[in-house]
Amino acid sequence: MSKKVPFERFSDDQQKQYEREARLQYGPQIVNESVNRWNSYSEARRDAIMAEGNAVYSDLAQAMLSGEPATSPAVQAILTRWHNHLRHFYEPTLDILRGLGELYNSNPAFIAFFDRLHPDLPQYLQDSIAQYVDDLEYAEIVRLLAQDEAERGRI
Length: 155
Description:
The chain has 155 residues and is mainly alpha-helical. The protein has helices at residues 12-26, 28-40, 43-65, 73-86, 94-104, 108-115, 121-154. The longest helix is centred in the last third of the chain and has 34 residues, at 121-154.
């Protein structure tokens, strides 16, 4: 596995280009929210967020190299950290989470980014994120069914 750090600060020009692309793909609201959140952080907080992201992706790559199945509880726990890390930028919906997993393994820029850690990481990320989102969706269905059952009991 490469010892390179996955997250590095983008140049101002790169950042503006990524923001333009994201606005076209995801709409201005979520991108503006992300930019505003990022700009509200101190330099020290930004460094801590970057380090946190590096740790998450490095831990996922290490789990993969250790033979940990993408669906294992240990990998899913790392994905909980990943999900919480994304919240530094915006509140991702389940559709966005699933879409990110797919993008990590289909978008050439994401593939190149994760190839720096390991060439099998994009597929591993897609598989592990799909399981993570499936589990969240299932938990939400169970919660809603329990809520419906409780409301029927009060009628």
